[in-house]
Amino acid sequence: IDSKDKKIAELKDSYLKCLADMENLRERTRKEVEHTAQFAIQKFAKDLLNTVDVLHLALTSIPAEVRNDTQNNPHFVNLYNGISLTESELLNILKKYGIEKTNPLGEKFDPNIHEAVYQANVPDKESGIVFDVQKVGYTLFGRIIRPPQVGVSS
Length: 154
Hints:
Helices cover 55% and strands 19% of the residues. It is α+β, with helices and mostly antiparallel strands.
C-alpha cells in the first residue's frame, strides 16, 4: 500500500506540474499573439514615415511671409493650409495606432535611441548634446521604428 500511495503522490505531482506547464505555455502564447498583432503594422508604418517627412518638407519650404498673405498669394495660403491639415491628420492617425514622434533636441545623445549624422563643435553647448535634428524619430508602442537623425555637439 505504501508503494501505491507513493506512486499516486508521484503521479499527482507530475500531473500538477504538467498542468502548470500547460498554463504557462498558454500564457506565453497569448502574449506572443498579442505582441505580434501589436507590431504587425511596423513595416507599413515605417514606409509611411517618408510621406510624413515629405509633407513636413513641403510645409517648411513655403516662406513664413507667404503663408498668411491672402491678399497677394491666396493659392499658397490654401496650399499651405491643406498640406498642414493633411500632415496633422496623418500624425493623429499614426498616434491612434501607437506611433509617436520623438524629437530629442537639447537632450543628451544616446546611441541606443539616436542616430548621429554628424558631430560639430558648438560653443554654447556641452559635449554630447543633440543640437540639431535632421529627421525626427518615431516609436511604435515604445519600440523605435526609426531613430531620430541628429547632429551632436563635440
